[in-house]
Amino acid sequence: MELYKTIIQGKLLYSNANSFAKAFKMYELRVETYYKNDIIFEADDIFDEEKLTLEIPRLVRQLYDKTFKNTVTLLEYCSQFAISGFVDAWLIQEGNITMYKHLEPISDKIAVKEYIKGRDLINEEGKEQEAIDALNKAIDKYDNHAMAYERRAKVNFILKKLHDAKRDYGKSIGIDDTNARPFLGRAEVLIQEENWAEAIEDLERAIKLSVALQPIYWHARRLKSICHMNVGEYDKAEFDLKLFTKRAFKEDNPNIKWLPWAYYQYAEVLMELEKYDEALESYEKASADDIPAIKGIPKGRIIRKRALAKKELGKNGVLADLKQASELGDKPAQKLLKELS
Q: What global pTM score does this model have?
């Protein structure tokens, strides 16, 4: 039998002692009768009767796939007694995800149904108020619904109600500080307020609480690089952008669309650090013919910056690049071309 790398983390919240007791009892019963103890966790290791939670701090271990599947199936069963929270689990072979499971409550409980309804409505344009109404109902039924507060905060952010968004993100974190998403969300509000230092703190928490297999991890790294650039911490921005630009994102990963932007920003940071060879390489990636246009960054500007990197290195092609940038309408390139000709 082959061993696989396994990552499991998450937290489930139970609304009352009765629901918690049912989940705990069924976990113990099924471990013995169905799975013959071929399970990762003992019940006492993950169930907390005082807090009414099932919590798994990040576990990284080599396991057989049968043990992983048994554990995930049992956790999925126990999640149906919960009212909020989630557990993520990955089975990885040679760096490739063999299996991924996102476990969360799905039941007829009003707090659960209204949360799912509100969460799904967020993705429909013009349905923001309906989403808030549903999430309000979920919170009314279960005041400690951290995920409902987080999603309501997201709607408020979309509606540019930044004060309300920050309040709800704070409430979500206050209930459950093991979820990366509200830290990322609050950081986005802080970025709008140009509060770079506090945004960096929240983004560091989001990175720590997520794993590199998740899009949110890379979203947080990209935003953190922006914060560092705004306060002149170019060495720290370089670290985040280097990781981002070296990552081989799959086509369905939303971060892949940000790669051209990251190539350009990485080059800008490297120029500030006087690492001109690496900067030129990144400008070339950002200006490649097969790279889509970068919103807010004209191609002429990128090619002019590429010319400046070549100039610093004493390389050929400076005038050719400036001419191309000038033809693309870049006025600083036109001025430089006149000065150098």
A: 0.93
